[in-house]
Amino acid sequence: MNTSNNELAILSIVLFVTGVLLYTKGTRRAPLPPGPRGIPFLGNMFQFNVMRPYPQYLKWAQRYGPIFSVNLGGQRIIVLNSSEAADELLVTRSKLYSSHESPHVGFDLVSDQQRMVFMPYSREWKIVRKNVHGILGPGPSKQMRKMQDLECRVMLHDLLCHGDTSIVEDFVEGPHGKVPERHWFSIIRRYTTSLMMTLVYGRRIHRIVDNPELHQVYEMMSNITHVSQPGRYLVDALPILRWLPDILAPWRAEGRKMHEWEMDFWGKLFSDSRTAFLNGTGLNGFVQSYLRARAEAGLEDLPGKGATEDAAGWMRDKLITYTAVSIIEAGSDTSSTAVFSFVLLMLSNPDVLRRAKEEMDAVVGSSRMPDWEDEDRLPWLTACIKETLRCAPPLPLGIPHKADEDDIYNGYLIPKGSTVIGNIWAIHMDPVRYPDPTAFKPERFYNPDGKFNWASGPDTHNRDHYIFGWGRRFCSGKYLAEASMFIVLSRLIWAFDFYAASDLQTGKVKLPDVHDVDTFTDGLVTAPKIYPVGFQPRSEKYAEMIKASYRDVQNDWQSMGLAGDKR
Ligand code: HEM
Asked: Which family does it belong to (predicted)?
């Protein structure tokens, strides 16, 4: 048959229109994914703990399969429970699913719409992401290795001085997950937060005790992860409530107050940096470099929020402030959580720990600390870290995405505006993918001949774990996070015999149960609650090396123009 160009064009249009009509008809007709039956208006709100949904989401995943849906007072939540479902929607169809959920209270009110992790897929997010990538991408993140090395040496010294303080003193966790200053958790938190502060502001956290700054950072992080949890505020689910007058909308004043509280702290850090930059005393953090570049473009003074409308899209002051906050928040709590879980899981599995020490002794020995070039030669340690991340992902439900359009998956409708969650916890507990999933078995990742591979690359189907999320919103800090986990955990194994507290009467080891959800905190980031551990150097020789290394590091700080450690 000889078809003319005109006929072809008409045929294409007819097919296209028919396709669109069929698609929209299908969209309207398709059922929602299965899920538990709820009650009118409030849906499934009272069927699980909204501050800790992942255990119930696992049960529903086991019952309903790769996709289910729940309704939280009108907020439709679609949960993806297999790597195939999450890959298909969040990676292959990432054009539709690259917005993050923007909770009204946490994003509009507390963050004045400037917090990156809650931004929709928008021009503003792209501007922020590009800038963040400029310091966290594979190349630039390597420049932080020197700081990771030095801060890690300080951490070893702090743990040496800590000894068994947290066992002897029997500390109690404060409100909002507040960690006592002399507990070993604070030492790890100082490491991760100091690294982020140097990256962003060019200033260290050089003190743990009498340093309210460090603890306030964590209080604010805990606050934002709690206020932003889906289901925390009804107004997040029912946009109509946003029209209520102030008197009937107590969350409004609450959210604004939290914004002021945040700005008192983060806004001051920003303005101090700006003043230092204007006085010519600025250091080399992201904020100062950005202000310098902006000033060179003739925009020294750019108050307000958002970015300029021109092609350059310069960030205004408030957007810079919150970009700095996003990096510090995203990089501090997550990385320290991984360390707390690693220590807990290793102590709970003494044979695994013993083997890690044997490997360390054979590969590194006692005359030097492990370093970056040892990565490929410590496959058992690598396997232990990966297994930790599988068994205790710091964000078991990732950060919720959002559907920007109606979509169909496996015959089910995903309505526009739905919250879409990649259920990392259910994927990690899938017995087909990981036989005997609740057991801590590093051997599943043990590969003595393979290259050191953290599986965070683009091959989403065959990843070892999913802790960094999916698609265009994939964790920006993965390179830095992986490097920190390796250097901190390898040196911890190398330097110390760490041990749990034991019952004075029975001599039995006292450790929180890793299988009990109450061992972990609520909220977006799920970290072990504080537990005591003692740190003993493996011999006097190790202790001397740690002390000498700490003294050397003080000279490094001085030559880099950074604050020395105060203890
Ligand atoms: C073990 C440590 C870490 C874990 C488990 C983790 C996990 C995640 C997850 C699940 C997401 C959301 C991904 C998605 O939406 O699908 C995310 C986003 C992000 N992470 Fe990480 N992260 C870690 C460390 C870091 C570090 C060290 C940094 C910074 C230095 C960082 C910076 C970010 C940023 C800026 C985002 C937001 C990306 C966006 O909104 O586009 N993360 N992370």
From this structure: Belongs to the cytochrome P450 family.
